Amino acid sequence: MVSKIKRQLASLPTLAKAALLLLTLLLLLAAILLPIFLIPRHRRQPLQPATPPADNCSTSTGANTAVAFDFSPFLVKYRSGCVHRMDGTERVPAGVDEATGVTSKDVVIDSDTGLAARMYLPPPLAAGKTKDDLLPVLVFYHGGAFVIMSPFEPKYHAYLNALVAKARVVAVSVDYRLAPSTRFRPPTTTRGRRSTGAGANVAHNMAMRAGNGSGLDGGAAITGVLLLDPYFWGKRPVGAETTDPATRRRYEATWSFVCAGRYGIDDPRIDPLATPPAELRRWRAPAWP
Q: Is residue 109 classed as helix, strand or coil in its secondary structure?
């Protein structure tokens, strides 16, 4: 049988032999490429931000009912090590907001630590309106006494959608790490800053760090800082602050809890009036556009 096929091939004209060889090569190539298109390819998915810390306690055992620190109405930490967060653990997905047309997307800043942010982009301008050449960047730090909330929380998500649509800015809402699992250490990040509560404290510290000579990467400048109800305190009462000793001791205790005792109540991170004069003299105001 094989010899018969060989004789038949030998009797074929040269052109026919070339065509047969080409056909064989094409069939072989098809056999190689076909599985590549038919077998589903693995696509690397982008890293997702870590889920905000939630209640990891079960109060069914006696060990979990012994309170180590009561930071109500935000959080209670038990001696077992578990942490019960009373608010700020709800999460809404990113996407296109139907009411404002703002688009949001979650991004990972540092995959090793899980540090993430939610970015917001304003909707396209209506026909006939002048297009934006460059959009200002607004860096937003949420509130929550350093222990609760995240950029993914419904109230902050709705607020950023409305703000971005109205001001036509690109917003970056930072998912900074929360105490007590991570002791307070101000994160570094550009342009304008708007923050509430504990986030206002972080924004203040970042603005001071950028203004004392170290600056920001890429030559970016901060053109404004808006602090809403900043988390500031100090040993001596200022203005209308309470003078009640018990209340002041409680505030000092919560600050020590937040930063694991690393910073005192008169540290510039919590008390701006304690900033050394020499450091204030080094502070340089940015050039306004």
A: strand
